[in-house]
Amino acid sequence: MKQVTISKKFEFSASHRYWNAEWSEEKNNEVFGLCTSPYGHGHNYELHVTVSGKVDPVTGMIINLSTLKKIAGKIVDQFDHKFLNLDTPYFKDRIPTTENIALVLFDLLDEQIRKENGIKLERIRLYERHDLYVDVWREEE
């Protein structure tokens, strides 16, 4: 049996600060360096969302891309032009590293995509820079 996936790219801009409140300023600076600025620093993120499913014999599609854009767009809008530490509820108790941002995005997307009959979120790839990205996928159970 053949498996088919389709991927769509989304973009958003956000800022963040690396800071562990349980550590001293010295320890935070030692571990996180310039990323500890109280003003944060920003990135233009690129999110690649890959889903799988059966190709509908009538439409020829796994998922209508307008549906995927609607789902991902609502999620990405929660991050776009936000200071992630303060403007979102997701990083009150975790540092908004690229890894943690990707994990949050995966969970939010997965919850919504599961509602689409027969569609599965396979993986996401989040680029923080052109040469730095994180992949998240579900391990087979």
Description:
The chain is of the alpha+beta class and 141 residues long. The chain has a single domain, classed as Tetrahydropterin Synthase, Chain A. It has helices at 25-32, 65-77, 84-87, 98-113; strands spanning 5-16, 41-52, 82-83, 120-129, 132-137. The two termini are 20 Å apart.
Brief summary:
Keywords: Lyase, Metal-binding, Queuosine biosynthesis, Zinc. The protein is an alpha+beta fold and 141 residues long.
- Quaternary assembly: single chain
Rounded mean pLDDT score: 96
Number of DSSP-assigned strands: 5
CATH-scheme architecture: 2-Layer Sandwich
Q: Work out the radius of gyration.
A: 17 Å
- Going by helix content, strand content and strand pairing, the class is alpha+beta
Corresponding CATH superfamily: 6-pyruvoyl tetrahydropterin synthase/QueD
CATH topology: Tetrahydropterin Synthase, Chain A
Tally of individual helices: 4
Largest sheet: 5 strands, mixed
N-to-C order of helices and strands:
EHEHEHHEE
Q: Beta fraction of the residues?
A: 25-35%
What key attributes describe this structure?
141 residues, alpha+beta, Tetrahydropterin Synthase, Chain A, five-stranded mixed beta sheet, 4 helices, 5 strands, 30% strand
Secondary-structure blueprint:
Elements: E1 5-16, H1 25-32, E2 41-52, H2 65-77, E3 82-83, H3 84-87, H4 98-113, E4 120-129, E5 132-137
Parallel strand pairs: 1-3
Antiparallel strand pairs: 1-2, 2-4, 4-5
Helix pairs in contact: 2-4
EC number: 4.-.-.-
Active site: 35, 81, 128
Protein name: 6-carboxy-5,6,7,8-tetrahydropterin synthase
